[in-house]
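Risk register update: the risk of archive-format incompatibility is retired. Evidence:
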Amino acid sequence: MSTLPSRVQQSFPGGDREGPESLDRQRQGIDALYAQLASAINDNIGSLEVVVTASIPSAGSDQDGKIVIEDAGTLDCNLIVYKGGQRYRFVGSLF
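Archived output:
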């Protein structure tokens, strides 16, 4: 039985099976997601806004495609990406 959450299994080809081939397909899926994120950032770089944490918009389909930089204070910044009615936070140390 797979230990991956069902959302991950659905997101990556082979996510419902374990083994080297499955892991390779999952890595390819992750690489594709990172490429899409990089493309979205490049497309929106001129319109990125810096928003303090308390003012970050709630997730919702009306925010889809929006990318903002979260100013969490004390030189702590995060990248926020809205997609599929959800909000994804990339912690500053990861990007």
